[in-house]
Amino acid sequence: MTKTASPALYFAGIGSRAAEWHRVFAEVAPELRLVDHLPPEPERAGMRYALAWKPKPGELQQLPNLQAIFGLGAGVDGILADPTLPAGVPLVRMVDPGLTQGMVEYCLWQVLYHHRRFWETEDAQSRRHWAEQYYPAPWDRSVGIMGLGEIGQAVAAHLTTFKFKLRGWSRSAKKVDGVDCFAGPESLPAFLSACDIVLCLLPLTTETRGLLNADFFAHLPMGAAIINAGRGAQVNEADLLAAMKSGRIGSATLDVFQTEPLPADHPFWQQERLFVTPHNASFTDAKAAATAIRQQILDHAAGKPLQHVVDRRRGY
Ligand code: NDP
Ligand code: OXD
Questions:
Q1: pLDDT under 50 in the chain at which residues?
Q2: What is the pLDDT of residue 7?
Q3: pLDDT at 5
Q4: I want to staple 179 with a disulfide (CB 3.0 to 4.6 A). Which of 166, 213, 279, 294 is the partner?
Q5: Ligand 1 atom index nearest CA of 146
Q6: Which helix (H) or strand (E) segment is 122 a member of?
Q7: Phi and psi angles of residue 290, each rounded to the nearest 5 degrees, phi first
Q8: Which pLDDT does position 1 carry in this prediction?
Q9: First CA to last CA across the chain, in angstroms?
Q10: Of 243, 168, 244, 256, the residue nearest 209 (C-alpha)
């Protein structure tokens, strides 16, 4: 692909790693023209591809010849939030082995953290107290994974090796080795009824928004743990606080929030046994992702189909 023949790649709201994305694309795709400001109208026609995380609403609509939008995350809710997003343009989400691996690490860390109640050991050390601690064997502990996609299935494969009792919940019926699978909203209460630890790895859609609410918590065993690395808007934050105060939810880790960064006066910061991580359960490996996006652009220009295209009706 030569620079003159190659299309421009338009950067639309690519978030806090903008400088890194710029540098890495310049390195791995030197033939692409990188554009990070909306150009004057006549030049907009040349913008064929866009890279986005949270584009400004209305921004992408102004590019009349856009052929594909590449999302910088596995979740594309920040892009679909734009009601004017050009309807016919394929939206490609991020599937990156490094991103999946980071999620696997995070989920293993947090499942073990809640399984072993490590905060009790940390607290004992802060008091110079030798506190022996007992906990059930993993085969006596049920971990429920919500979302059995790219990330959920990778996490399940690793948790299987720890011999946890695994349950999984997805939209369509699945068979996953070592996982008792449930599908659809009607099976949610049965799925939840035996989950000691729930791991949410769902995309944000109209169906999953606000799903983790008082009714949801009421279906869990008393004292269950919640780990949310999906999206913040899936949790009703007031209901979660109430469920923690009542003991219905015994502990929680949240990586994602309705407002990010989490405001300094948010009650989550103070809530006992609620652990906050700053939406960095994992992140996309910039070099691998830029290389893969460049390849998709080359393939698309050569008439090959795009991979990992979002189904806009489903929202993921
Ligand atoms: P996938 O699209 O591969 O998988 C999504 C899974 O969720 C599928 O199993 C799907 O079911 C299931 N699902 C979707 N809607 C519903 C529903 N209404 N009811 C039940 N199940 C549903 O996505 P990924 O695994 O790649 O990523 C999942 C999410 O993880 C992302 O959308 C993002 O929000 C979050 N994420 C967070 C990160 C972080 O740093 N915190 C990093 C990366 C991702 P089915 O299989 O039937 O389609
Ligand atoms: C996400 C990501 O979707 O970082 O949160 O990929």
A1: 1-4
A2: 76
A3: 52
A4: 166
A5: 21
A6: helix 118-126
A7: -65, -40
A8: 47
A9: 31
A10: 256
